[in-house]
Amino acid sequence: MREVAMFVEDSAHRLIIEPLVHRLAEEQGAMVQLAWRNAVGGHGKVLRELATYLRDLARQGGPWPDLIIVATDANCDGLNDRVRELQRHIQDARTPVVFAIPDPHVERWLLLDGAAFKAAVGQGCNAPDQKCDRHRYKQRLIEAVRDAGVTPILGGLEYAEDIVQRMNLDRAAQADRSFARFIDGLKAAFHVFESEAAGAE
Questions:
Q1: Helix 79-89 and helix 177-200: axis angle, to 10°?
Q2: How many domains would you assign to the chain?
Q3: Sign of CA dihedral 175, 180, 182, 187
Q4: Range of the domain at 143
Q5: What is the pTM of this model?
Q6: Which of 13, 26, 69, 201 has its CA 20 to 30 A from that of 42?
Q7: Residue 183 contacts by C-beta under 8 Å, 6 or more apart in sequence?
Q8: Residue 52: strand, helix, or coil
Q9: What's the pLDDT at 195?
Q10: What is the mean pLDDT, run by run of 10 residues, along the chain of 201 residues?
Q11: Between the CA of residue 145 and those of 114, 125, 137, 142, what are the distances in Å?
């Protein structure tokens, strides 16, 4: 069983990233256990908690997890700038780190595959645009759920796991560079796990 340390901004990230990690782990034949280190408090809290975690592990000499996943929205900073910022914070990591950086916000990922949305909610959704507006995709998700004749109890996030399980990941990755970057990074990490397991046999 591989331990994956998780640092995410908030509950929306947890509800979307967790089923993505489990789905890809299953598809790649990786046995993973998620250790939630941070799931509230926003971007700044993620960075502080991550820095403290890495510093403490370095001082103690481990044990290090098999993988660290850091999830934070690009917001209006842009994907590349956010990647560079996070890379500065993981210089002391002695284990692989994968970034999940939805651009601009994580709710947009749930709108990438209209067929998956329809299967989960009952009616498809329009392909999302890509504009920087703080609440744009939260509102788009709510509207898409309401258009299906359903009341969004958790802003539509209650359907996150069902949508993720039905997503065509390749199609979604073609529609969103930030999604593709996360999926590719996670697949690569799980491939290493698989190779190490095969080598140990």
A1: 40
A2: 1
A3: positive
A4: 2-200
A5: 0.94
A6: 26
A7: 20, 24, 169, 173
A8: helix
A9: 77
A10: 96 97 95 91 92 94 95 91 93 94 96 98 92 90 96 97 98 96 97 77 60
A11: 12, 8, 12, 5
